[in-house]
Amino acid sequence: MIKGLWGKKIGMTSVFAQDKMVPVTAIDLSNWVVTNIRTQQRDGYEALQLGCLRKRYVPEQFTSAWIKSPNKYFLVFKEIRFTDKPEQVEVGKSLDWKIILSEGTVVDVSGTTKGCGFAGGMKRHGFSGGPKSHGSNFKRIPGSVSFMRSQGRVIKGKRMAGHMGMASRMMKNLAVVQVMQDVPVILVKGSVPGKAGSLVFVRKA
After folding, report:
1. Strand ranges (DSSP E) for 54-139?
2. CB-based contacts of 203: which residues, under 8 Å, 6+ apart?
C-alpha cells in the first residue's frame, strides 16, 4: 500500500459542498512518473521514486533516455514508501492516484511554508507593540531582551526578530471535498503550507 502522493499546490478557491460554501486548496497531481522502484534486497527499504516532468516533455512518450539523463527531463525527484508493492506499477508510468484518494477521504498535507525573509517581532510573533499615540517612542520596538543582557547573553528561545517562514509544516485531518474528473486535480478543505507552485505531500490520515 502506498503511503501518499506528491503534488503541486495551485492555489485556493471556494466551492459549494452540501449547500455550504467551503474554502478549498487545489492540488495538482499530474506529471509524476515512476523512475525507480526501491526494494528491500537491493536498497534496504521499499519505496517508489517519482520524478516530476518538465513541461516541455509532458506530451512525449517515455524512453530510456529519461533515466540516463534524469536532470534534463525531470524537475525534482521524490520517494514514497509502501508496504505492499502496488499492482501495475512500472518504471516510466504514472500512478493511478484515484485508487488512493477519493471524495471524503481524510488526508494530512505537509509542505514548506512561504519564506518572508527577515521579519520583526510584531510580524513574526504577533506582538502588539507599544502605544500608537503621540509622544510614544516604543512603537514597534521589541522591548527588553532578558535579564542576561549585562552578561552579553540572551535567553535561549527568546522571541525576537529573525528569519520567518521556509519551515516544514503539516495540516492534519483535511477532507478531500472534490476530485476533478477531467484533470488530475483534487480540492482539499482548508489551507495547506506553501505558496502556489510549491510541492506538497498528501497522505491518508
Report:
1. 74-81, 106-112, 117-119
2. 3, 4, 5, 107, 108, 110
Q: Is the separation of the CB atoms in 201 and 6 below 8 Å?
A: yes
Determine the pLDDT at residue 12: 95
C-alpha cell at 146: 532578558
DSSP-H helix ranges across the chain:
40-43, 65-68, 70-73, 121-125
> The C-alpha cell of 54 is what?
518538465
Average pLDDT along the chain, 205 residues, taken 10 residues at a time: 88 90 94 90 90 91 88 92 78 82 91 94 91 86 84 90 94 93 91 94 91
Domains in the chain (CATH in brackets) are 4-116+163-204 (2.40.30.10), 120-160 (no CATH)
- Give the sheet arrangement for strand 32-38, strand by strand: 32-38, 47-53, 74-81
Distance CA 42, CA 83 (A): 16
- Phi and psi angles of residue 65, each rounded to the nearest 5 degrees, phi first: -65, -25
d(Cα 95, Cα 184) in Å, to the nearest integer?
A: 11
Strand 32-38 and strand 47-53: the pairing is: antiparallel
* Farthest CA pair distance, the chain: 73
CB 26 within 8 Å of CB 187: yes
Is there a contact between 179 and 186 (Cβ–Cβ < 8 Å)?
Answer: yes
